[in-house]
Amino acid sequence: MVDRPGRDEEVSVLAGSVRVAGHLSVPDGARAVVVFAHGSGSSRHSRRNRYVAAALNQAGLGTVLFDLLRAEEEADRSKVFDIDLLARRLLDVTAWLGSQADTRDHRIGYFGASTGAGAALWAAADPHADVAAIVSRGGRPDLAGPKLGLVRAPTLLIVGGLDDIVIELNRTAQLQLRCENRLEIVPGATHLFEEAGTLEQVARLAAHWFTTHLGPVSA
User: Fold this and answer.
1) Please, are residues 178 and 149 in contact by the beta-carbon 8 Å criterion?
2) N or C: fewer beta carbons within 10 Å in the chain?
3) pLDDT on residue 42
4) The pLDDT of residue 133
5) What whole-number distance in Å separates Cα of residue 150 and Cα of residue 166?
6) 121: three-class secondary structure by DSSP
């Protein structure tokens, strides 16, 4: 277990023509960084994603939580569901990690929630993307549409057992994936995993998937 991050700070990243705010946390000895893509109406301050990010840090993985949209863009519904725009910004943040001295050699994973999951899969389908693992929490992988068959990274889809519509959307999307993939349904959980113990299950599943596919902490 890694107790203290070697780098833990707010960052600003140029994504296209705008700057997006984020929080980067890289434990000592980490060999991988998981980039979080939030859903609409959420931000890098999301309690749920911060909880999962802390669990990944404890497992020895770096994390970066950032805002896909600027505050003034959130009111524009066309941008909220512009998966191509969100994916391009996600790729820009990934490229930024590759330019940093302490993360340029790290393997990359994506953790997407809601619309952010669609953006993560869209970005991972880019032929130049070097993404080693993806986890979707209550995600909308269907929003990646025709890109799903191009995703190469092992993908874990996590859905609440009471989130009936999203379960079906995930099952349909899963049929289009050609990469290693798995659908995990958390019993008793609704869309936001607010029920006791359900978010902990998400964190455990995500940590296991990422440590399996991104590799262990260095000695």
Assistant:
1) yes
2) C
3) 59
4) 98
5) 22
6) helix
| Residue 27 falls in which region: left (phi positive, over 0), alpha (psi -120 to 50) or beta | beta
SS3 percent helix, strand, coil of the chain, rounded to 5, is 40, 25, 35
Q: How many CB atoms within 10 Å of residue 180?
A: 12
Name the token pair of 192.
């936001």
pLDDT value, residue 3:
44
Q: Where are the beta strands (DSSP E) in the chain?
A: 5-15, 18-27, 32-37, 62-66, 107-113, 131-137, 155-160, 181-186
Query: Is 2 strand, coil or helix?
Result: coil
Helix (H) or strand (E) holding 133: strand 131-137
User: In whole angstroms, what is the distance from residue 110 CA to residue 94 CA?
Assistant: 10
Question: In this predicted structure, what is the pLDDT of residue 41?
Answer: 56
List average pLDDT for each run of 10 residues in the chain, which is 219 residues long: 65 91 93 89 74 96 90 74 92 96 95 94 96 96 96 98 98 97 98 96 98 76
For residue 137, the surrounding DSSP H or E stretch is: strand 131-137
* Nearest residue to 146 (alpha-carbon basis) of 165, 118, 166: 118
**Tokens, residue 136:** 């979707």
Contact 99, 24 (CB under 8 A): no
The SS3 call for residue 42 is coil
Q: Which two tokens stand for residue 182?
A: 């798995």
